[in-house]
Amino acid sequence: MRIDEARPYVVDKLKYALNPSSIAVVGASRYPTKVGNKVVSELLKWGYQGKIYPINPRADKVLGLKAYPTLRDIHEEIDLVFIAVPAHLVTAVVQDAVAVQAKVVTIATSAFKEIGREELQNNITQYLRDHQIPLIGPNLVGMGTPYAHFNCGFIPYLPVEGPVAMISQSGANLLAALGTSQMNHFGMSFFVGLGNKADVDFSEFIEYAQNDPHTKCLSIYIEGLDSPQAFIKSCQKVTKPIVVIKVGGSKIGNKAAFAHTASENPESDDYYDQVIKEAGAIRAQTWQEFLDISLALGYMPPLKGDHVVMVTNGGGAGLLSCDHFERCGMPLHELKEISPLLESRIRAYMPMFGSPLNPVDISGTASVIQYKGAFKQVLRDPNVDGLLGAICPTAVTDVNGVAEAAIEVYESCKDLHKPFIMICQGGQECHEAIMKLRDHGIPAYPTAEQAVNAMVALRKQAIK
Ligand code: COA
User: What percentage of the chain has pLDDT greater than the value 90?
Assistant: First the structure.
């Protein structure tokens, strides 16, 4: 349901959704294949430290925990109620949640507005609004944060800790991001699936994220915006970078968005371009770009100017990069135009057959010492705004050693506040180097284009 702006009571109470002291799981089934059972087992598996109250009138115990017939039987404070019973039972459970003064209600159940039962959804929403209890969902997969070992939903993964708050309307894409987080060390601060977002809107999680100490970048997946003005207002209030992917712009995608999360998109895709621009957010076109630029904006400061220097041991990676920089409207400048002194300094770290153009090619035989020296010279040059490093795994390249050198240089130059991004394209040792770099806060990617997109996003963030 539409809102004019983020409601303060909602923003304030979202802490109970992401850091609750107690959770009641309604519909906590005795059977491990069912959603409610999974919610409890994932809470236990990932080490949630608060109290868990399984609610199931047919069970005495669920997964070893005492079960209660209804919420009213608990007689303790309940921060979060997570509902996973069929739709026809939800209204009664919501009445119980109000009676016990729960702080936040979450409904995983499907079969509301997305199948035409708008009235049922609106009645539940209005009832909870009247009692100032935020409702997340219905039709949602869950939420959590690795910082509290908190995985609340039917979600098989907890992401690794990091800077990105993932606010997604789609459960499936949220799961994709969480899986990627574990596999590719894409660090998250918290995550939430909003589902039909009958009540709690993007804007409220956006304002919550501004106050979350672990969040450095907000990444938002949108299928429909019910309250575009609230979205714009909240984004404008936020000082952290925001990346948006808005889907459902195609003719059939528009209908699919309604069937999925009851999202209505009466406006053209250009309209959303305008909304996102006015909000001061960066729009990603593809899922990969969405993840890549989120990571960069989470870890790195904005790129103050377009004096980016690339240092590589492979001319091919250099060429892919400089062509893509130009395609993105941010062509590389030759080194001598950026800083004439840098050219002579950097020559000390390359063989005579290297190229100090830009990309700076320190050649396929580059050693860890040469990389380290070149990286330092580039970052310390006052005319340079950012560094793009690339590792190509020739048989004489110490891939891990170069990654460690990059981390050492990055740590020693952190106070210069210059973006440092790495490319490492190749086999297993390159994947491991990327993971190590990411674990130390350096955005690293397996292809040149991904890294360039990330650097360009940092420039957009600086000039937005
Ligand atoms: N309070 C609490 N628990 C109750 C209850 C009540 N009033 N009435 C019944 N239950 C119990 C059931 O007995 C059952 O436990 P049991 O298996 O031990 O007997 C449990 O709650 C679940 O009820 P059940 O009828 O088996 O439902 P279900 O698990 O098959 O389905 C949903 C419930 C919510 C999962 C289903 O309706 C649904 O919406 N699925 C789609 C969810 C989805 O995809 N969301 C979007 C993600 S992106």
Answer: 94
Residue 301: asked if its preceding bond is cis (omega within 30°), the reply is no
CB-based contacts of 43: which residues, under 8 Å, 6+ apart? 23, 25, 52, 150, 151, 152
| 30 close to ligand 1 (CB < 6 Angstrom) | yes
Tokens of 343: 């050219």
User: What ligand 1 atom has the least distance to the C-alpha of 170?
Assistant: 48
Would you say the CB of residue 85 lies under 6 angstroms from ligand 1?
Answer: yes
The pairs formed by 89-93 with CB atoms below 8 angstroms and a separation of 24 or more are 89/27, 90/124, 90/138, 91/120, 91/123, 91/124, 93/26
**Whether the CB of 27 sits within 6 Å of ligand 1:** yes
The number of angstroms, rounded, from the C-alpha of 389 to the middle of its chain's C-alpha atoms is 24
Separation CA 434–CA 428 (nearest Å) = 10
Q: Which whole number is the average pLDDT over 359-369?
A: 96
Q: Which CATH number fits domain 302-463: 3.30.390.10, 3.30.565.10, 3.40.50.300, 3.40.50.261?
A: 3.40.50.261
Query: For atom 45 of ligand 1, which residue has the closest CA?
Result: 139
Annotation: CATH topology of 8-296: Rossmann fold (3.40.50)
pLDDT per residue as tens digits for the range 93-110: 999 999 999 999 999 999
Check residue 259 and give its pLDDT. 82
d(Cα 321, Cα 325) in Å, to the nearest integer?
6
Would you say the CATH fold of 302-463 matches that of 8-296?
yes
Phi/psi of residue 65, nearest 5 degrees: -100, 145
* Mean pLDDT score, 434-458: 98
Testing ligand 1's pocket by substitution, the residue of 26, 35, 73 carrying the most ligand atoms inside 8 A of its CB is 35
List the domain boundaries for the chain.
8-296, 302-463
Task: Compute the distance between CA of residue 45 and CA of residue 370 in angstroms, rounded to an integer.
Answer: 46
Atom of ligand 1 nearest to the CA of 35: 35
List pLDDT tens digits, range 375-433.
999 999 999 999 999 999 999 999 999 999 999 999 999 999 999 999 999 999 999 99
